[in-house]
C-alpha cells in the first residue's frame, strides 16, 4: 500500500476556528476508535491493513501525526516479530522521520520496544542490523537512540557488518588475545571506492581503500557526550582523520594485539624518536600557536606511509598489516616543513583519540 508523503502540504480549511476544533476532536475520536479496533484484531493481515488505513486517513485529513506514529510503530513491531525485513526497515524509517514532528518521548518508548523484541528473539542477519544502525545514525545522529542500540549490541557481543564474511576475520584473533574486544568494537566494513575523498577538520582525508575497518565504540566517551568531533561530513567541530602504524618491531600476534588494546584504552604516548621536533611547523592553521613542531605522537594522512610502520599479524600463512585511524584535534596539529606526510600532535585525549582499527593482507617486513 502506498502511504501519503509525511512532508506533503496539508489542506487548508476556510471554516472558522470553532469548526476546525470540532472537526479535529471528532477526527481524533474516530482515529482512536480505529486504532483500538486494529489492536484488538486477531487476523494478522486484517490488523496490518487497518493500521495502514489509519495512516492514510490521518495524513489526508489532519496535520497531526500521533496515530500515524503509533500505527507505524505497531507495523514495525509486527514485521520485526515476523521477520519481514524489507517491511520492517520501511516502517522503521517512517518512525524516525515522524520523530522530528513529535515529542521525543515517542521515539524513546519505540526504541525500547524494538530493542526488546530483537533481544528476545534475535534472528536478523548482520546485514539488517547494519542497515538499522546506519539508518539510526543517518536520521538521528549519534544520540540517545543510536547509543541505546549500541548498548544492546554490547550485551550480545555482536559485530555489525553489511558483509557477513567480514566478521569471521580476524574475529578469532580478537577473542583469543583481547577477550573484551567485542565489548568496545561493533561496526565492520570493507573500505571501498564508495567512500570519497573529503575535507574533514580542515584537512584532506583519503580513505584506506581495500582495508577492513573495525569501529571503536567511543560515542559519548569525551567532551561531556558532545560527539561533533567524531563527524566525517566536513562540518564544524569535526576532528581530522589521520593514520598511525604501530608495533612494527613486534614479533608475535599476541604482542601486536596487546599494543592495540593498550592504545585503545590508554591512547598514544610520545615515543623516543622525535626526529622533527625542531622543524618549522608549516600547518597554516596552527603555526602562529606552534612555530615549531615540538614533541608529540606521529601520524600521517597517507595510509601507505602508515602501512610501512604497521605490525604484521601472521595468520594462515599470510601477513596482515594493522593500522589505527585516529581523530586529531585541528587546533593542535603540526606539520614538519621538510616532511609533510608526517603529522605531529600532543599524545593526549585533547590531541588524538583512537577512532578505528584497520586490517589488510600485506607484505612481510624486510
Question: How does this model look, in words?
Answer:
- Helix 3 packs antiparallel against helix 4, helix 3 (66-81) packs parallel to helix 5 and helix 5 packs parallel to helix 7 (144-156).
- Strands 1, 2, 5, 6, 8, 9 and 11 form a seven-stranded mixed sheet that branches. Strands 3-4 form a two-stranded antiparallel ribbon. A two-stranded antiparallel ribbon has the order 7-10.
- The model is unreliable at 6-11 (pLDDT under 50).
- It is built from ten helices and eleven strands.
- With 366 residues, it is of the alpha+beta class.
- The chain folds into two domains: 1-124; 160-366, Phosphoenolpyruvate Carboxykinase, domain 3, CATH 3.90.228.
- Strand 3 (198-200) and strand 4 (203-205) form a beta hairpin.
- It is 40% helix and 16% strand.
- It has helices at residues 17-40, 44-61, 66-81, 85-99, 104-120, 126-140, 144-156, 171-177, 253-266, 303-308; strands spanning 160-161, 185-190, 198-200, 203-205, 212-216, 240-245, 297-299, 311-315, 318-328, 343-345, 352-362.
- The longest helix is centred in the N-terminal third of the chain and has 24 residues, at 17-40.
